[in-house]
């Protein structure tokens, strides 16, 4: 996937912008609050996903204006295509001149991976953010995975309601087995998908981290499920039925504890992803630069997997990624990522001095010019 031209009108702080990016690396430099992240956000919206800044659609419209427009010319699926998004404040979508009703229909043509400063919370916050990391990617790879997640959450909420109310209505206790059967079936599918995905992601991310660090540290990422005892490791050879059985048995063993606490203590909603460098947990012992490098490796590994699934390299957006990286890691990002079209923002011009082939743009007060 390659953007040929992007046009923006009254989007955020951008009054009118047109950019013809290069096919490889595109550096967007400028001081803070000039519109760099707004541009990245607009590019991300073309993937069909929601804003990575958790923005409401009405907030995309420039202050004092009634409508924001985004237009793109791009090459994907072996042909030239166009896309349009308008906010007024409702959202309207077009692909190749044809109206599209939902973002779900819009997704799929432009695959992309984004890194933003908020991803630095991956190791600072709890397991929820790490689960979200892989679930977001899996929803791009397997659209049906989203519906399985939604069904699992629905059954989980119902089971938790029964666990809470059973203290006051003992007749509800017999209902728990019905929910356990559904939860084990759906959870088995989620766990198997995550385990297999993480095993493949680890191989690609470890290779990328090796390049970024010049082989100085050994990267390893592993999915950790609460369904298994602490001394038992995940096995990618297990089937969905195998995981469903393990989950069912674990639910039976934890049933008394769950009734006592009024919630489901084990399952995919409690699982985690452990990342280590030289067998030491990154979230506890990694420096800021090491943590940033690990997250970047995971995101770039995600891009490789998405590219293999789509049959063409996805878009890569790296917002404010260069800080806290040494020259070796910066050089790798600028020159060794691969075939994807990359957009990368930074404040300091010196940070991209090692760029061998690409375009550099300066952004100021919502306006952009190629350097």
Structural description of this entry:
The protein is an alpha/beta fold and 371 residues long. The protein is 40% helix and 23% strand. It is built from 11 helices and 15 strands. Strands 2-1-4-5-6-7 form a 6-stranded antiparallel β-sheet. Helix 5 (144-165) crosses helix 6 (176-213), helix 6 (176-213) crosses helix 7 and helix 6 (176-213) packs across helix 10 (288-310). The radius of gyration is 23 Å and the shape is globular. It starts with a strand and ends with a strand. The model has no long low-confidence stretch (mean pLDDT 92).
- Count every helix, treating DSSP H or I runs of 4 or more residues as helices: 11
Q: Largest sheet at a glance?
A: 6 strands, antiparallel
Order of helices and strands: EEEHEEEEHEHHHHEHHEEHHEHEEE
Structural class: alpha/beta
Mean pLDDT: 92
């Amino acid at each position: 996937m390659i953007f040929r031209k992007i046009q923006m009108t009254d989007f955020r702080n951008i009054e009118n912008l047109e950019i013809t990016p290069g096919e490889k690396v595109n550096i967007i430099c400028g001081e803070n609050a000039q519109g760099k992240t707004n541009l990245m956000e607009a590019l991300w919206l073309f993937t069909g996903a929601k804003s990575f800044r958790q923005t409401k659609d009405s907030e995309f419209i420039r202050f004092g204006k009634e409508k924001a427009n985004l237009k793109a010319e791009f090459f994907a699926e072996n042909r030239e295509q166009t896309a349009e998004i308008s906010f007024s404040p409702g959202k309207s979508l077009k692909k190749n001149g044809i109206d599209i009703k939902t973002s779900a229909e819009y997704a799929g043509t432009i695959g992309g991976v984004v890194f933003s400063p908020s991803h630095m919370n991956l190791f600072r916050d709890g397991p929820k953010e790490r689960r979200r990391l892989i679930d977001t990617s899996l929803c791009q790879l397997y659209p049906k995975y989203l519906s399985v997640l939604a069904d699992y959450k629905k059954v989980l909420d119902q089971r938790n309601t029964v666990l809470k109310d059973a203290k006051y209505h003992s007749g509800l206790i017999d209902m728990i087995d019905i929910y356990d059967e559904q939860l084990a079936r759906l959870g088995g599918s989620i766990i198997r998908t995550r385990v297999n995905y993480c095993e493949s992601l680890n191989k690609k991310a470890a290779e990328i981290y090796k390049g970024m660090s010049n082989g100085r540290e050994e990267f390893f990422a592993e999915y950790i499920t609460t369904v298994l005892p602490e001394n038992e490791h995940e096995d990618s050879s297990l089937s969905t039925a195998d995981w469903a059985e393990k989950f069912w048995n674990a639910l039976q063993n934890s049933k008394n504890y769950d009734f006592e606490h009024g919630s489901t203590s084990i399952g995919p909603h409690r699982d985690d992803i452990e990342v280590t460098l030289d067998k030491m947990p990154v979230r506890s012992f990694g420096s800021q630069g090491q943590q940033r490098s690990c997250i970047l490796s995971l995101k770039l590994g995600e891009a490789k997997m998405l590219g293999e699934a789509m049959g063409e390299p996805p878009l890569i957006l790296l917002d404010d990624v260069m800080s806290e990286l040494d020259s070796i890691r910066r050089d790798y990002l600028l020159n060794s990522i691969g075939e994807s079209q990359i957009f990368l923002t930074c404040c300091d011009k010196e940070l991209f001095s090692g760029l061998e082939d690409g375009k550099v743009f300066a952004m100021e007060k919502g306006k952009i010019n190629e350097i």
